[in-house]
Amino acid sequence: MIGKILADILIADSDVSGSVGDKIYPLVAEKGSELPLVIYNIDSVDPIYTKNEWVGDDCSFTVKASDTSYSSVTTLIYYVRNALELVSGTYSGVKIRRMKVMNLIEDYDPEADAFIKTMSFQCRINEY
């Protein structure tokens, strides 16, 4: 559920979609996809319980931006951060409490000649 919400938020953001179009993928990009693009994946969904009931899920996820230049991938991950950071509300019936940035990792893929920035986030879901 959280994956579809991430995709919807990123696609709806004019800066992100203006940079990558519809090239926003879960887990892995489609074969032959051209840069720039964005890949997201869910790292964990950890349920939270009180003595008698479920009260929510703590979710961790990463969003990876890839492009051919360091400058452009830096701009793209900035757009991703602006689209997701501190988001809260109800999306597709799912109540999300504040998405927070946890860290950023940079990388380079010589085979794809791509600069990569991976940003990790956490949020809490209180209702499905």
What is this structure, in a nutshell?
The chain is α+β, with helices and mostly antiparallel strands and 128 residues long. The protein has helices spanning 2-12, 14-20, 70-84; strands at 24-26, 37-49, 54-67, 89-91, 94-109, 114-127. A hairpin with a 2-residue loop joins strand 4 (89-91) and strand 5.
**Proportion of strand residues:** over 45%
Q: Which strand order does the major sheet show?
A: 1-2-3-6-5-4
Average pLDDT value? 96
Helix content: 25-40%
CATH architecture annotation: 2-Layer Sandwich
Q: What are the low-pLDDT stretches, counting only 5+ consecutive residues below 50? A: none
CATH topology: STM4215-like
Terminal Cα separation, in Å?
A: 9 Å
Number of helices: 3
Order of helices and strands: HHEEEHEEE
The biggest sheet, with number of strands, parallel, antiparallel or mixed sense and barrel status, is: 6 strands, mixed
Assigned CATH class: Alpha Beta
Label the overall shape.
Answer: elongated
- Which value, in Å, is the CA radius of gyration? 15 Å
Decide which structural class fits the backbone: alpha+beta
Oligomer: single chain
Domain count: the total is 1
Number-wise, the strands total 6
